[in-house]
Amino acid sequence: MGSDYAIEADDLRRTYRARTGWLKPTRTEVEAVRGVTFEVGRGELFGLLGPNGAGKTTTIKMLNTLLIPTSGTARVGGFDVVKQTKQVRRRIGYVFGGDRGLYDRLSALDNLRYFAELYGVAPREQKRRIAELLDLVGLAGRERERVEGYSRGMRQRLHIARGLLHSPDVLFLDEPSIGVDPVAARELRRTVGDLAATGTTVLLTTHYMAEADELCDRIAVISDGCIQALGTPAELRKHADGFRVVEVEAYGVPDTAVDTLRGLPGVRETAVEVKGALQLLTVHSDAHVDVQGDVLRELAGIRLGRVNSREPTLEDAYVAIVSAA
Amino acid sequence: MSTLRLLLVGTLLHAKQISRSPFEVAIALVVPVVQATLAVYLFRSGGEQHRLLEAAVGAGVMGVWSSVLFGSGGAIQNQRWQGTLEMIMMAPRRPALVILPITIATGITGTYALLATLAWGRLLYGIRLDFAHPVAFVVAAVVCVVGLGMFGLLLAATFVLMRNANALANTLEYPVWLVSGMLVPITVLPAWTVPVAAILPTTWGARALREATSGGPVWPSVALCLGISLICLLVGFLVMGRVERRARAAATLALA
Amino acid sequence: MKTIRLMAVGGTIAYRALFNWTTPGMFVGTLLVGPLFQLLFFAYLGRQLQVADDRFYIVGNAVLTASLACVFGGTMAVANERRYGTLGHVLLSPRSRTLIFWGRVLPYAGNGLLIAVVTLTVGALLLGLRIPLSALPGLLLAMAAGSLACGFFGLTLGALGLRFRDVWVISNVAVALLLLLTGVNVPADGLPGWMVTVGQWLPITHAASAARSFAAGEGFASAAPALGRELLVGAVYAAAAVILLKIFETESRRRASLDTY
């Protein structure tokens, strides 16, 4: 245990080779991760934030021994993830989002018993540990029901209990809140926060900004297989420094108006998001330029809703980082 | 000790998981009974009425083989579909120890076929279950099931690397039935199949059960079945380790 | 013409889409090598038990091997559409549903025919069965009739899949039952009467007996009645499939169970 870091990734790269086509197979190569380097301290809650397909899951799977990196090295708890898999696996837990990954026709108790055995939890401790975890994730009392009857949130909590069976030093959470309702998601965040508070190192991937902002000590924003920015949420917010954001709710924004706005001096970014009947037009601009007047002039004649000029949030910083990549 | 516990708990839970699948159980019960019916009329047409119990046992053993074959290929595919393959392969255990309980469980659930064909023969065709060596029959059945489970590990090792293992499984059902002489020893096969049959644990397992049914030296066949199965287990262990590493390199653990 | 195009093109595209997870190796393995082993198994079993001669087993089983692709194919035509969530789109298409689903059967039946031809050729070569050249057109005809009838039989099973969740149980059992009931492996006089009667209404039974007549060098005249009966059985299943599809479609729309899987 010579290392100060729980996780060290050094220039990790991963290429997928795929064969597509039936009569004329063609080989394609996809570079999912192209040189990722970071360290996570012991007991740190570290977030990997990025859009879908950015390389988050691939990165996690290289760290938790499921994938061998095409190049680069990584260590977990000081052990090499390619050569010392057994030592690494004893110390890590892995939880992914979604409802797969459990034995549906078995009860939660049977699932946990099986994985406790697999992960080498001492027979004498199994019963106590399983009861403890069922309690922690709020499944106590329903552990004898078959998993196929569980809701998505319950399955997710069972996943977490399973990942914690052998009290791992490092927990990998891959999009844990995907498809979970808001209440369950909040509870999930509290559980994760508690774990980190008791000294477990957590590597969390997510594309929910609020989740990352609330939980993580540090965040790496990953996009196109590269880390675009890394720092505490406060540091990342600085990427939006010198910005100002104007948000306009409108009904029927013409494309020409958006194009014109994009060409205005001082405007960095424009985005239109459809929210039901209305559209939310977001304009990022340099802080010293007031574009609100220009925006309203361009939208003259269109029915408008709320108009808002505000300081940038972490989300704006994230958008700025990802779109600069 | 901890390894033995893992194998035991794992086998029981996987057998439970398979037994709760209406599909698996329906196939394990119905298809062998149809095969056994076919065997009975074939034996009758061939003037072998006195060997109907052999036909029932033989069709049951064919069912055990189908269960192991499709189970070992299909179970890994199933683990992949359920997303559990990554979860179990990530355990700090030798990959073979993780997969072996699944393949043995497919052998155990295969005995449903054997029980079904025997019950069917008794009830519908009044076949009397007078085994020449009843105790030896039970021992032979247990060895056959566990042995085929070990053989299944070797198959599974090959299947982990292939995304559509079922296709390979489909092709191996009939030739093993044929060469191992499961329904009836085929003396009219080409000579080159004799050594192939001799190294298949299925040959000796089926033979032990037949000898226990209608008389013969059961124990040498039981010993050979077990011996060959243990060799398969050993080879399976070695192959499985390599296979797991290659699967991690080729990213075939998840259904990406 | 447009109708034929809808059936052929629609059928081919669906077939490739539903099969695209298989590689050519898998295709050859499952659908060409597997059936060949099946033929060898029964041919050797027949030799061992001296139930009937090689021609009986080789020709009969070759025709039967078409059933694998056809029954599973026909089932897939409906079941996979549902599984991939495309069934709703197909049922909503304004084109005639009957033609669309019949069209689905054609590539599977063609595939079954291909398998039967390959299995017969390789099986006959391996086991040394001589077939007169003049018998070939007739044999091809018999196998085509069997494949087509079997394809519609598979479609009927697939339609049942709309109603029952485990359609694959049905098709697996059906394939096993065809082995027993079509009289391909046990001569009809060795089977109880009711099994023979059921067999008369299954695909392959008559095609196999027509194919045997052709292979024995008998002319078209002696095989024609069996051939006709096979086509009749096929037509019955084609109609049954459409009726079932209509019934279950209405029913599942009412119960909103179209895309539950």
Structure notes:
The complex is a heterotrimer of chains A (325), B (256) and C (261). Chain A is α/β, with parallel strands linked by helices and 325 residues long. Chain A has 2 domains: 5-231, P-loop containing nucleotide triphosphate hydrolases (Rossmann fold, 3-Layer(aba) Sandwich); 240-324, ACT domain (Alpha-Beta Plaits). Chain A has 11 helices and 14 strands. Chain A has helices at 56-63, 85-91, 108-118, 123-136, 152-164, 182-197, 209-215, 233-237, 255-263, 292-298, 314-324, and strands at 5-20, 26-41, 45-49, 71-76, 79-80, 92-96, 170-174, 201-206, 218-223, 226-231, 243-250, 267-275, 278-286, 304-310. Chain A has a 6-stranded mixed beta sheet, sandwiched between helices. Chain A has a 4-stranded antiparallel beta sheet with strand order 2-1-4-5. Chain A has a 4-stranded antiparallel beta sheet with strand order 12-13-11-14, with helices on one face. In chain A, helix 3 (108-118) packs across helix 4 (123-136) and helix 4 runs antiparallel to helix 5 (152-164). The mean pLDDT of chain A is 87. With 256 residues, chain B is mainly alpha-helical. The two termini of chain B are 36 Å apart. Helix content of chain C is 80%, strand content 0%. Chain C is built from 10 helices and no strands. The radius of gyration of chain C is 18 Å and the shape is globular. Chain A binds chain C through residues 22-23, 25, and chain C through 16, 19-20, 22-24.
